[in-house]
Design goal:
Blueprint (H helix, E strand, L loop, with lengths): L2 E7 L8 E4 L2 H14 L16 E5 L8 E10 L2 E9 L13 E6 L7 E6 L2
Parallel strand pairs: 5-7
Antiparallel strand pairs: 1-6, 2-3, 3-6, 4-5
Length: about 120
Amino acid sequence: MQFEDVYHHYFNLTSEKFLILDSQEKVDKLYEEIGNHYGGKRSPPIPQVNSEEKFVLFKPILKNTNDVQILKVELENNDLFIKTKPFYNPENPENNRVAPYILIKVYTSQNIKKVITENFN
């Protein structure tokens, strides 16, 4: 499945394990929260959503690194599987063990009910 890794946010964005953003209203609400964390500084532009794509926000489990790289995204029976690989992100301090909230864009019109992350070393 085609996907785009949009951004890794290193602050709390939701208490949910994942969010499916399939409408402009949901994306606008998330970006309002993101903008609040930047405290008046320039925040990322708000992307537009259409019927052939969705945004997914999730928080991976970190073990021995400070970030993950997304290797592959697959959709099976309305379950979205996100395969990740640990890596050290130079933009984040090496000793930081707080997992980022990762925002990706997936190119599908199918409904997504569940997001499952798999970590590969």
